[in-house]
Design brief:
single chain, globular, 368 residues, alpha/beta, eight-stranded mixed β-sheet, four-stranded mixed β-sheet
């Protein structure tokens, strides 16, 4: 055997050994072996798995990923915006991240509900409940993101599969949020329009935090569990780009027989994305929005952009009302929860900033 042939033999043997170790450790990390394995073994093996596997980033698309400003929401507008957002993920992919994409659905699910009303009034087509409308939006938006992402991968000659998962998220049916609707959905209305719709449909409306108009609000219970987390994690670990937890996920609960049932609600997309990132062991959580950084004194003469926020600082600013409930507030809390639950890095920024290594506002546990 020549020297070069021997070197090649050694390299191949080492790769096979590493791959075998990787597979064994992955099984440990997913707890597919005996449930009696001590927790420290799971933690140790999960740490070692990271040495042999790509990092995972959960990227939560903001509301402007599909619709922007005063756009009416034509398919041409939504597809162009989707493409413009997705192309910014190439930097993360080239930086060796496996990607999970989540997205909102506020305007889309609001339009679906309006179609519900129009279909019933015009043709007596039975109205569908809100959980079905969320599922409907996941399919349509997931398709748009999936197709545009595939087109972008083709342009960059990157071979990856893209798949959308219709994602259910378990909530607590006794969550007090069901008695106090706060989650905005649908388009913005004038006060007179909102009053008329409220009277005709018994809907509740709230003025947008940025004074853009009135929007319908529905119950937004806290997400407790991503039902589809295992398949999402498995697909992501294998290098596929996964679109999941659209619109915060389809809200379901377990009845007294432990069966899953749908419920009328919309889960906050950022909270669900943060939970998903935690449950699949993501390394980074990106919250995309329409501003490049988090600000204090936002839209005031003395507004200030923040490069880094500790968990304690973020909570302090949140508690004194620096971040609006219907805008930056949920993103801050979602980013903080991810770090508190063991995540390494949370970043809040605008999609086009992803090409900048120091982009956005980074939420960290502490500054050393």
């Amino acid at each position: 055997m020549t020297l070069n042939a021997y070197k090649l033999f050694v390299i191949i043997r080492e790769i096979r050994v590493i791959f075998t170790i990787r597979q064994i450790l992955l099984r440990f990390s997913q707890k597919e072996l005996s449930a009696e394995i001590p927790i420290f073994v799971h933690q140790f093996s999960s740490g070692l798995v990271r040495c042999f596997m790509k990092k995972i980033a959960v990227v939560a698309f903001g509301g402007n990923a599909l619709l922007r400003g005063s756009e009416t929401g034509t398919i041409q507008q939504q597809e162009k915006n989707t493409y413009d957002t997705c192309i910014n993920l190439i930097k993360l992919i080239k930086n060796d991240y496996n990607i999970v994409i989540t997205h909102g659905n506020g305007p889309q699910v609001g339009n679906i509900l309006l179609r519900n009303e129009a279909g019933y009034n015009q043709y007596k087509i039975p109205k569908m409940p809100l959980d079905i409308c969320v599922a409907d939006s996941q399919g349509g938006i997931g398709y748009m993101i999936e197709r545009q992402m595939k087109n972008i991968l083709t342009e960059y000659k990157i071979r990856k599969n893209v798949v959308s998962i219709i994602t259910q998220v378990r909530v607590d049916i006794k969550d007090p949020a069901f008695n106090e609707p706060t989650k905005p959905i649908g388009v913005f209305y004038l006060k007179e329009e909102a009053d008329l719709l409220s009277k005709n449909n018994n809907w509740k409306f709230q003025l947008d935090a940025r004074k853009r108009g009135w929007r319908r609000v529905v119950a937004s219970p806290e997400p407790k569990e991503i039902i589809n987390k295992k398949i999402i994690k498995d697909l992501t670990r294998k290098g596929h780009i996964v679109i999941a937890a659209g619109g915060g996920g389809i809200p379901v609960y377990r009845d007294k027989y432990k069966k899953l049932q749908g419920v009328e609600a919309v889960i906050d997309k950022d909270f669900a994305s943060s939970l998903l990132a935690t449950e699949i062991g993501a390394d980074a959580f990106y919250c995309l929005t329409d501003v490049p950084k988090v600000y204090i004194n936002f839209h005031k003469p003395d507004q200030k952009a923040l490069d880094v926020l500790t968990v304690d600082e973020a909570r302090k600013y949140y508690e004194v009302g620096e971040f609006g409930e219907g805008s930056m507030g949920p993103k801050i809390l979602a980013a903080v929860k991810f770090i508190e639950n063991g995540g390494r890095e949370s970043v809040i920024t605008e999609a086009t900033q992803l090409n900048n290594h120091s982009c956005g506002t980074r939420i960290v546990k502490s500054i050393h």
